[in-house]
Amino acid sequence: MGDRKVIVFDTTLRDGEQTPGVSFNKEDKYKIAEKLKKLGVDVLEAGFPAASNGDFEAVKNIAENLKEITIAALGRSVKEDIDRAYEALKHAEKSRMHLFIATSDLHIKYKLKMTKDEVLKRAVESIKYAKGKFDEIQFSAEDASRSDYDFLTKVFSEVIDAGASIINVPDTVGYSVPGEFGKMIAYLKKNIPNIDNVILSTHCHNDLGMAVANSLSAIENGADQIEVTVCGIGERAGNAALEEVVMALDTRKDYFNVFHNINKKEIYSTCSLVSEIAGIKLQPNKPIVGVNAFRHQAGVHQHGVMKNRMTYEILNPEDIGIETEHFVLGKLSGRNAFELKVEKLGYKLSHDEIDKAFKKFKELADEKKIVEDEDIVNIIKEQLEKDKK
Ligand code: KIV
Ligand code: ZN
């Protein structure tokens, strides 16, 4: 185990719910929240109470009933959002107010229609207003990765003085690339004068497919917390996927040398629950939890895995709670994989019978993309019948 802890902040119920077409009701949210607690996330962002009455009720329900976990709620840097979040979170065992305001020139000019000084003032005032109402205050500089570094440093430094104990660096539009994002984290760690004892967090979006890589680069450069969603669901191309970041950290423990609280055996069932409730089918080649993530089709690979699974597998499916079929039988499969499958299906055939059945299997595999178990059982039965005659 490494010596530095990575805090896992899950935002499946907030940013994950911003996935187009996805909406969680109060019951859905509670069911997912219970599972996330079992998974071992450190902080659970339950929603955005000021966004709707429904979300307010859903956050309140989680805060009142789910204990031994920090419950966070998002709000803009305005009094109304803070008051609403306070009402939703006041019975949480440990509450975190997550305030945000944009810091990039683009957002300040076109979206907020404010000056930089006004943004700074608003950020600081909102933290001061929230202080004392919650156990912790987190501040996010929206669009941080496209913000001016000097301004960003100044904003973070002043919100820390005002009472924020967690500062979050979002790559809001998934624009950054790993080397650059890592350097940005290192820069902020070095240049924010009062950053000691403050948690430095990252929040990466996946528009260029780099949310996980950017999060890992941030960790390498000293980030303490990662914000993630289960299966990477979220606005547009989504967020950094919890299961991918965690499995990368563990599989390459030799490289990252950090630890986390995630109970990996719960990963697969958590992803299944979220994808079912969200109504999102996972792509077959999705890393870690896609249906093909641990399947091998090519004969050479199947043969290698039979001798030693490490030849072509860097992850152990059982570690994340998957009971899986490793081999997909198709036209590229070899005789060894076929023989193993026959045995798994409970049949014992002679060498000669296997040869004949394998020939039939290859003929069928030329016609069908994937040969299913029942096709193989039919081939075996036909073969055994023929041999009886
Ligand atoms: O992407 C983003 O910038 C966010 C913030 C509100 C943290 O979701
Ligand atoms: Zn986001």
UniProtKB/TrEMBL annotation:
Question: Which interval of the chain is the signal sequence?
Answer: none
Give the GO biological process terms: L-leucine biosynthetic process
One GO term in the molecular function aspect is: 2-isopropylmalate synthase activity
SUPFAM superfamilies for the chain? Aldolase
Which organism is this protein's natural source?
Aceticella autotrophica
Pathway where this protein functions: Amino-acid biosynthesis; L-leucine biosynthesis; L-leucine from 3-methyl-2-oxobutanoate: step 1/4
EC numbers on record: 2.3.3.13
What is the name of the protein in this document? 2-isopropylmalate synthase
Q: InterPro entries in the record, alphabetically?
A: 2-IPM_HCS-like, AIPM/Hcit_synth_CS, Aldolase_TIM, LeuA/HCS_post-cat, PYR_CT
Keywords from UniProt, A to Z, are: Acyltransferase, Amino-acid biosynthesis, Branched-chain amino acid biosynthesis, Leucine biosynthesis, Manganese, Transferase
- Per the record, the domain of life is Bacteria
Similarity-based family: Belongs to the alpha-IPM synthase/homocitrate synthase family. LeuA type 1 subfamily.
Keyword Transferase on entry: yes
Cross-referenced CDD domains = DRE_TIM_IPMS
Q: Which residues form the Pyruvate carboxyltransferase domain?
A: 6-268
